[in-house]
Structure to design on (428 residues):
């Protein structure tokens, strides 16, 4: 067996970090066997004593439901109030993410939180068979690692900020020539890449892939099936965000999204009230990060929507299961009758047009939509308009625009749905 340098480094790093990595990994495993939700109380007590925003709660009973639901905008307004007075900002790890409106949101982690996040990634990578030190290709933007580090970690970085045939050709060559077994990619990049390989007549024998993780963006079920058939390996979805970590991950057995209840307390709340949503109902995802003490995120409305499931998963893991991630709240359209039309329903329409390679739908007003379409082989335009009309409520105006490419954001993500309605953007 070839020496896996990365694996060796992992254990040394774990030892000098007081075994936080291996302990977190063990705790996650135990949590899925007993299905218990880890307690938020230590964090809540800490917050009322050290975080100015929560000082007012000092004299009331300490329970999660008494803490206000916050979001990026609330925190951004006066971020100083959210810092713990027990940390100095200079010693913290600073990260950046962007809200639906593109304004950056800065978050700060203590060392422990950063280690827990690393451990989460290692733990969930194993669900697809990928362990520390295995060769892998990663789609990521803004990663600046030394050649030595990439060599030790057996990592190839492919930045998806700007995609082209040349880009896909390079990624394909890397995977094939270097016999890379694992690929962690953006949902839409995996989709486009599998189409690219399909057009070139690739089959699973062309690759040496053993597992793929789809992250950062949605991957529709049909796109997953195509990728699995071309690459000949499981493709599992990961639900993670930059400011938190891995919130849920699909199991290899049934492909259902198991919530990470060991490191987060996730509430699923109704869209227009603070009441818990019922299974089967579209809900807001409200996260309490149990390991983030420097700038705690407590009852943080992350802006994503999901439907929870009350069916126990056949894989044997216990705890909450997400049935569907229905996308960002900002990435939904509003139909003629005021109904929310989710990303999933839109992608279902597109599924019936296999010649469409990429698309982007923009809602201008309640009755007006623009659809940018990338297709090199043509598609039935009147049929597409009819299907969208049926989905959005009949008498709406839909304008199709053929484009060569749909530009990606700086984060490398592509926005499939954009809602530009004024009353709507104020909500998100
Ligand atoms: Zn499962």
């Amino acid at each position: 067996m070839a020496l896996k340098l990365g694996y060796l480094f992992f254990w040394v790093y774990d030892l000098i970090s007081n075994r936080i990595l291996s302990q977190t990994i063990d705790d996650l495993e135990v949590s899925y066997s007993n299905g218990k939700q880890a307690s938020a109380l230590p964090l809540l007590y800490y917050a009322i004593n050290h975080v100015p925003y929560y000082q007012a709660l000092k004299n009331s009973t300490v329970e999660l439901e008494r803490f206000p639901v916050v979001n990026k905008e609330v925190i951004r307004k006066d971020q100083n109030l959210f810092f713990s007075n027990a940390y100095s900002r200079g010693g913290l790890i600073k990260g950046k993410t962007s809200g639906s409106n593109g304004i950056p949101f800065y978050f700060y982690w203590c060392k422990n939180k950063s280690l827990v996040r690393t451990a989460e990634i290692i733990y969930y990578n194993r669900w697809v068979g990928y362990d520390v030190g295995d060769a892998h290709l990663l789609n990521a933007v803004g990663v600046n690692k030394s050649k030595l580090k990439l060599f030790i970690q057996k990592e190839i970085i492919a930045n998806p900020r700007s995609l082209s045939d040349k880009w896909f050709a390079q990624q394909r060559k890397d995977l094939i020539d270097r016999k890379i077994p694992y690929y962690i990619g953006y949902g839409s990049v995996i989709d486009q890449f599998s189409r690219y390989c399909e057009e070139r007549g690739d089959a699973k024998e062309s690759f040496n892939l053993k597992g793929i993780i789809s992250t950062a963006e949605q991957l529709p079920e049909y796109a997953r099936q195509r990728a699995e058939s071309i690459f000949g390996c499981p493709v599992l979805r990961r639900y993670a965000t930059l400011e938190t970590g891995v919130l849920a991950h699909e199991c290899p057995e049934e492909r259902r999204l198991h919530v990470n209840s060991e490191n987060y307390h996730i509430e699923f709340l109704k869209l227009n009230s603070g009441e818990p949503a019922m299974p089967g109902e579209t809900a807001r995802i409200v996260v309490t990060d149990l390991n983030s003490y420097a700038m705690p995120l407590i009852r943080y409305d992350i802006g994503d929507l999901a439907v929870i499931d009350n069916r126990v998963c056949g894989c044997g893991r216990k705890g909450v299961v997400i049935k569907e991630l229905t996308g960002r709240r900002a990435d939904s359209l509003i139909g003629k009758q005021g109904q929310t039309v989710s990303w999933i329903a839109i992608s279902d329409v597109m599924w019936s047009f296999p010649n469409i390679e990429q698309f982007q739908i923009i809602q201008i007003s309640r009755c007006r939509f623009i659809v940018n379409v990338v297709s090199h082989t043509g598609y039935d335009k009147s049929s597409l308009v009819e299907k969208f009309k049926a989905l959005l409520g009949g008498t709406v105006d839909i304008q199709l625009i053929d484009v060569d490419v749909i530009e990606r954001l700086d984060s490398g993500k592509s926005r499939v749905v954009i809602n530009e309605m004024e009353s709507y953007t104020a909500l998100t």
Residues 251, 253-254, 256, 258, 313, 315, 317 surround zinc ion (CB under 6 Å). Confidence is low (pLDDT under 50) at residues 424-428.
